[in-house]
Design a protein that fits this description.
By secondary structure, the protein is mostly helical. It has one domain. About 70% of the residues lie in helices and about 10% in strands. The protein is built from two helices and two strands. The protein has helices spanning about 5-25, 40-65; strands at about 30-35, 35-40. The protein starts with a helix and ends in a 5-residue tail after the last helix.
């Protein structure tokens, strides 16, 4: 997929996430994950952590392609 399409898909995903968070509203609202109850705050932090991890993977791939480091 070309980069503009990836960016559009990423923005769309975040728009959906923003809508869900707005609908739930309460950061202490219960959220179930694999049969375990957490709160919305936990779920949001989990998504941020996953995004961080996968962004790091993408950066490693980019470095292997173009040879530049992120420094």
């Amino acid at each position: 997929m070309p980069l503009p399409g990836l960016r559009a898909a990423y923005r769309n995903t975040w728009a959906v996430n923003d809508r869900i968070i707005t609908e739930i509203g309460d950061p202490d609202a219960p959220v179930e994950r694999n049969g375990v109850m957490h709160d919305l705050r936990w779920a949001m932090l989990a998504v941020i952590g996953e995004t961080r991890q996968h962004t790091g993977h993408g950066d490693i791939i980019r470095e292997q392609i173009d040879g530049r480091t992120g420094r």
